[in-house]
Input
Amino acid sequence: MKSLLLFTMIAFLSLGLSTGCNKKKKSTTVKVTVIDTAGKVVVGALVRVYANVSESTVDDEQTTDYKGEAFFSYDDIFQLGQANVAILDVDCSYGGDTGSGVIKVESEQENAITITL
Output
């Protein structure tokens, strides 16, 4: 009886430890909202998010949707459990108007910036 109780306690302890070690990684995203000088969203603006260093592989482009937003996912550049931060440049253009900014991207968060053209 004691061995059965001991076995059960060890089994539950092992299950608890293995479940606690399986932390799921949350998404790391960047949302860029593009507006004009009147504060209206700009649909169809070209948005470029990139790292301004020669050895970087981050250089992505999207077009804003009907809400003036462009979304980027950076799950693949951050490692689970590390304190990851990236500083990325953002350039936007539409019909000859341009705007730019810099965003601090923190891992496992939705990071957002608004650019005015």
In short: Confidence is low (pLDDT under 50) at residues 1-13, 15-19. The two ends are 75 Å apart (CA to CA).
